[in-house]
Design brief:
Layout lengths: L6 H4 L4 H6 L10 E8 L6 E2 L7 E3 L1 H13 L4 E7 L16 H13 L4 E6 L21 H17 L4 E4 L6 H11 L6 E8 L6 H6 L21 H13 L3 E5 L5 H10 L4 E5 L1 H12 L5 H15 L3 E4 L2 H9 L1
Parallel strand pairs: 1-3, 1-4, 1-10, 4-5, 5-6, 6-7, 7-8, 8-9, 9-10
Antiparallel strand pairs: 2-3
The protein binds ligand PBG.
């Protein structure tokens, strides 16, 4: 029998037909908003390379979370910008550190209405800008860093976090954190593992957002992954699952959709993807020049990430996407 003429176009004829056969529908429930909170400021500060995103004060952070909750966004992930940085990244585990203070504020204000996630890393807090402690020769010391991550996890847990999200790419970090939490009977605190995290040039605007500069113009290639490697990402994810991760993540998103799809095919745990600062900034910059329709590209990116297999997306587009979906 000859192939029926126009079969594939028939169901694309009207908006209702297209909705009916849609395979992927984005919902506000799929979105997690990354939020920055800065110690010691009275007014929110714009971030030039992330238009529309700010470093929040404690008060403006609460307003933003209120708006997100109202739009149906279920969770936020907090990043802290401390007043002072040091070699150990002390602010990350200080009970009065900015993220711990913000977590308590938000828990008091919103109870269980919002899922509170905290990025768990040292780079925002270290004066050298690396994600871990340095040895005397300037390399990142894996095992000494694990002890610091355990301290940070406990501080975030005591402050009321629901989920800690280790992003430093040290080997064994998920296990070290799980053991530290369980030992203190903080068994309900979950771990969202930045399992496959690439040494990407797309994190540039984020480093402006948290005032991070890596000492000596260095990079993170000795702990984050090489963009050319996909099988290695599967190994990273397997390790984190074995160590007790509750949610696994691939980061960045758009250039790694193949990795998302492969992780999805292999694992049944909830899978997150991080649409990172550079991905957001590229959309905003091109839209500002009138070269693309920014709102349409934003929805296309987020839908594609979900289509590839992500259950949830960390994205600076969370608020505007939730607004558009609710409209
Ligand atoms: C590390 C961390 C980074 C991001 C999230 N967690 C930066 C890095 O690895 O250099 C990047 C997120 C983004 O670009 O939006 N704490």
């Amino acid at each position: 029998m000859p192939f029926p003429q126009r079969r594939l176009r028939r169901l694309r004829r009207t908006p209702a037909l297209r909705r009916m056969v849609a395979e992927t529908a984005l919902r506000p429930d799929d979105l997690i908003a990354p939020l920055f909170v800065r110690e010691g400021i009275d007014e929110p500060r714009p971030i030039t390379s992330l238009p529309g995103v700010v470093q929040h004060t404690r008060a403006s952070l609460q307003q933003e979370v209120k708006a997100l909750v109202g739009l149906g966004v279920p969770g936020v992930i907090l990043f802290g910008v401390p007043e002072r940085k040091d070699a150990e990244g002390s602010g990350a585990s200080d009970p009065d550190g900015i993220v711990q203070v913000a977590l308590r504020d938000l828990r008091d204000a919103f109870g269980d209405e919002v899922v509170l996630i905290a990025d768990l890393c040292l780079d925002e807090y270290t004066d050298h800008g690396h994600c871990g402690l340095l040895t005397s020769d300037g390399t990142v010391d894996n095992d000494a860093t694990l002890d610091r991550y355990a301290e940070v996890a406990l501080a975030q847990a005591e402050a009321g976090v629901d989920i800690v999200a280790p992003s430093g790419m040290m080997d064994g970090q998920v296990l070290a954190i799980r053991e530290a939490l369980d030992e203190e009977e903080l068994v309900d605190v979950a771990i969202l593992a930045y399992a496959a995290k690439y040494a990407s040039a797309l994190y540039g605007p984020f480093r402006d957002a948290v005032d991070v500069e890596i000492v000596g113009g260095g990079d993170r290639k000795a702990y984050q992954q090489d963009p050319g490697n996909a099988r290695e990402a599967l190994e990273e994810v397997r390790a984190d699952v074995d160590e007790g991760a509750d949610i696994i993540m691939v980061k960045p998103a758009m250039a790694y959709l193949d990795v998302i799809a492969r992780v999805r095919a292999e694992h049944d745990l909830p899978l997150a993807a991080y649409h990172v600062s550079g991905e957001y900034a590229m959309i905003k910059a091109a839209a500002e020049r009138g070269w693309i329709d920014g709102a349409a590209v934003a929805m296309e990116h987020l839908t594609a990430i979900k289509r590839a297999g992500a259950d949830m997306i960390l994205t600076y587009l969370a608020r505007e996407a939730a607004e558009a979906l609710g409209a």
